[in-house]
């Protein structure tokens, strides 16, 4: 129910938490001048906040009859558009909170995403009714017919910087590029059936989208031209299986790690290797992730070490390698504010490190089997871990103490854990072929989902937290009501 501001340089909290909504906050957006924030909530309202005082300036603003799932400022900051789970859109005057146009109807299902055109004359919306609609931002009237072609929910929409194209992504595993003036489909980019597309964004130059091919044994990263759908670059250089890939926050680099023990950085525009391979691990490099500011990469390896690298010089940062785990490092992650790195190892410990100094902050002991998965809560206050010991554990990040008793129910190794988007639930998957949902506050079991016949490799919440997708070793994908 709160909104928090963080200093991007230091990772420190700025001001006080912003309280005003009475239910989950689903979406926030900065004003163009960075002096205000707009937020949308499950309490059906929109609020406008002062960045300087961390207080509500306007609101709550009520018009919608469903969760407000997406908000966006116009480029000049004069208007805010909001999209709701009730299938309607509202345009607000940002200085007074007056509803200028609304409720705008046309979609026949929930609105998942809204975005203004860079010139501010139009905005686009994506919906669970499988369509994309363009609207006149001045009159509030729809422009032309709905953009039809997706066969499943539209998750995200965006304008190209030059206003000529619109991109939309969908659960049908495609990204579609539309002519923003005529509405004609310019290109449909199909992704492998093994993964859904939950978000789409243009690179800063507006010309390219990065597609990352993921999956067991797939060793290629492709960069696609958004205008033609053709592969611009195939990035090759690793000599063994690529275990994980990541994109830098500004989209300029791709990072990859491999069983060849190296981490590589790639220029997404030229397709060329960026600097030399990052070499130092003495065993498989299992995990790679960029820091929130994109200046560093952290990697975890089967050699038991975590290493931090500069993306500018492609050399180790002086703080690395961090003190060694006594076993293979299976998973690493940055905290939401970028100030901490957390790692899980086969030595049965979870360790928290200072991301700036490399100093050990806390060691979380309790599991009796090796750690397979870790995740930060969305507010950064807790960590959840899943282990070979068949348990799920919740930890207090400040004290390092376990929160309550272990979550017990799986009868085989826990393969994956994650928090729901609102932080109220935890999902765990297991080699026993089941998925379990837990109340993150009370730690009580909510439900058990059974249907897979083998090891479940991963599970993920949908952005609205209402559904779960899971994938098993046999190649099966299941969708569940959460």
Overview of this structure, please?
- With 482 residues, this protein is an all-beta fold.
- The protein folds into 2 domains: 189 residues, Methylamine Dehydrogenase, Chain H; 243 residues, Methylamine Dehydrogenase, Chain H (7 Propeller), CATH 2.130.10.10.
- The protein has no helices and 42 strands.
- The strands form 12 sheets. Strands 3-4-5-6 form a 4-stranded antiparallel β-sheet, with no helix packed on it. A 4-stranded antiparallel β-sheet has the order 7-8-9-10, with no helix packed on it. The chain has a 4-stranded antiparallel β-sheet with strand order 14-15-16-17, with no helix packed on it.
- A hairpin with a 5-residue loop joins strand 19 and strand 20.
- The two termini are 21 Å apart.
- Keywords: Repeat, WD repeat.
- InterPro entries: WD40/YVTN_repeat-like_dom_sf, WD40_PAC1, WD40_repeat_CS, WD40_repeat_dom_sf, WD40_rpt.
